[in-house]
Design goal:
The protein has 187 residues and is of the alpha/beta class. The protein contains 6 helices and 7 strands, in the order βαβαβαβαβαββα. The protein folds into 2 domains: 103 residues, Rossmann fold (3-Layer(aba) Sandwich); 80 residues, 3-Layer(aba) Sandwich (Rossmann fold), CATH 3.40.50. The chain starts with a strand and ends with a helix. It binds glycinamide ribonucleotide (GAR). It is an enzyme of class 2 (transferase). One of its GO terms (biological process) is 'de novo' IMP biosynthetic process.
């Protein structure tokens, strides 16, 4: 049986889309049972609806604590038999509550060669720093910001003077590398 995954996203959802496409094309052995977002207005919700993946939108502000928010998310995941959590542009730190419910079962993708340029706008940070090579990292999640054991990395050259082309190149690599890394660990 294919492992059941939930994809968490807060934005456009191009990585969600790539994972869905890889599963459909039988390049990724997983069942994408639900997309969870903390941003009900995010474009990823439209993408999920379009491809027929259940979208669960939470508004963390409406919970008294982060723990209460994550407990609600965990209940929804457990009801659906989710075994792995795949963060794909989920721009919120995961707390102990979620980490303990899914120990060593939460992974993240980040658009830099970690530990360089963690946090928001990693591509912008790399360009501003003047590095010539950046890349993509897939890693297990711990309580830190884009920390945790590295599963896979791939370098991407910065295209000087062309931010858009650099971003596009990084996203292309993300879409390939996430599938490869997940096939390696989802057993
Ligand atoms: C991706 O580049 C992902 O690596 C990044 O957010 C973007 C989401 O794009 N994640 C982080 O920066 C995590 N710190 P998407 O919504 O199109 O998949």
């Amino acid at each position: 049986m294919a492992p059941k995954i939930a994809v968490f996203a807060s934005g456009s959802g191009s990585n969600f889309q790539a994972l869905h496409n890889a599963i459909e094309a039988q390049k990724l052995n997983a069942e994408l049972v639900v997309m969870v977002t903390d941003k009900p207005e995010a474009f990823v919700v439209e993408r999920a609806n379009k491809v027929g993946v259940e979208a669960l939108a939470f508004s963390p502000k409406t919970y008294d604590t982060k723990a209460a928010y994550e407990q609600a998310v965990i209940a929804a995941l457990q009801q659906r038999g989710v075994e792995w959590i795949v963060l794909a542009g989920y721009m919120r730190l995961v707390s102990e509550v979620l980490l303990q419910a899914y120990p060593n079962r939460i992974v993240n993708i980040h658009p830099s060669l970690l530990p360089s340029f963690p946090g928001k706008d990693a591509i912008g940070q790399a360009i501003a720093h003047g590095v010539k090579v950046t890349g993509v990292t897939v890693h297990y999640v711990d309580e830190g910001m884009d920390t945790g054991p590295i599963i896979a990395q791939r370098a991407v050259n910065i295209i000087e003077g062309d931010v858009e082309a650099t971003e596009a190149a990084i996203h292309r690599v993300e879409h390939e590398l996430y599938t490869e890394a997940l096939n390696q660990i989802l057993k």
